[in-house]
Amino acid sequence: MTMPTAAVLDVVIPVYNEEADLAPCVRRLHAFLAGAFPYPCRITVADNASTDRTPEVAAALRAELGIHYVRIEAKGRGRALKQVWLAAEAPVLVYMDVDLSTDLAALPPLVAPLLSGHSDLAVGSRLSRGARVVRGPKREFISRAYNLLLRGTLATGFSDAQCGFKAIRRDAARELLPLVEDTGWFFDTELLVLAERADLRIHEVPVDWVDDPDSRVDVVATARADLAGIVRLVRHLRDLPLGELRARLGRAPLDPPGVPPGLTRQLVRFAAVGAGSTLAYLLLYALLRPGLGAQAANLVALGVTAVANTAANRRLTFGISGMRNAARHQAQGFAVFLLCLALTSGALAGLHVASGAPPRSVELAVLVAANLTATVLRFLLLRAWVFRRATPATGLATEAGAAPTASREPARG
Questions:
Q1: Would you tell me which of 128, 211, 349, 399 could form a disulfide with 135, CB atoms 3.0–4.6 Å apart?
Q2: Structure pTM?
């Protein structure tokens, strides 16, 4: 490796009382970077107020290998990473756990899209396809349950929030880190959620990962802190200036020439909401059909899913949150529902007139076709009428296709 001042990559290892593992970890990492990495690198040991011989071991490694050592007089992995990353000069910043549970072969593909400018953050994933993981069933269950909880509460798109193997571009770090409150284990999750909400690109790398049986992580305390962090984020995300951050760093949607601005992203989100609504509709219809009959089951199923569909599209597809105009949107959405009801009921009535008592599979197929037609009609009406863009003269917040303001931050799907 070259001198630290020329570093393109700064690899940070947060430690607390790691006198036994620190030297083997650093020597192995140094050998890998020197032999297999084509860029100048620096290794930084971030010491979280260790009370054992960790400082002496780090000093010996600094003399032997030229590593960088930073002492932080308080515990907390997030606190260490935040302090070191904000002071770093390398364009790409990495961190990994001292146990090196993640195979170092994943480091080049982790940082390559950041060095090229393709992505803003990169994370190792133990849960994505292609990952190879060795750990006990308890920790496997906890990890998967935690990431499912994140998806359900914060609508996250990344697969593994807590793998100790991540990288970030320095420019993105300096914008995001001042907004991250957590100083402990939830730091990773909070950083990723904020990055995702700011429309930064997150690259995931499936990793080979072997659990460290000597891990000092207190699973119960960490889980409790993570839950508290999720609650805090859910409550306060709208108060953060993510709209401003998105304007500075976020990647604009790819709208093809000749297509109205925002239409591509709206179509994708509308399709996702529509798919969920259709599945819910079919499930409700199948459950209600034996007791209510075809028409009544269709009415109830379509009515329930229409209310949820309007609310979901209002927030996710067209980026509108808060209560302003919510009643009007639901009323207009109800009018769209009536049109869709007429279309699906008419198709169902026509089928029964033509066939008398058609098989249930044919009945469902006709309803699916009618719902697909109704979906196209619903999108056109929602975009052009229900959630149409407010005119500049009104002075109101922009609606369909608009970029949200910092005080009216939409949930990201």
A1: 211
A2: 0.62
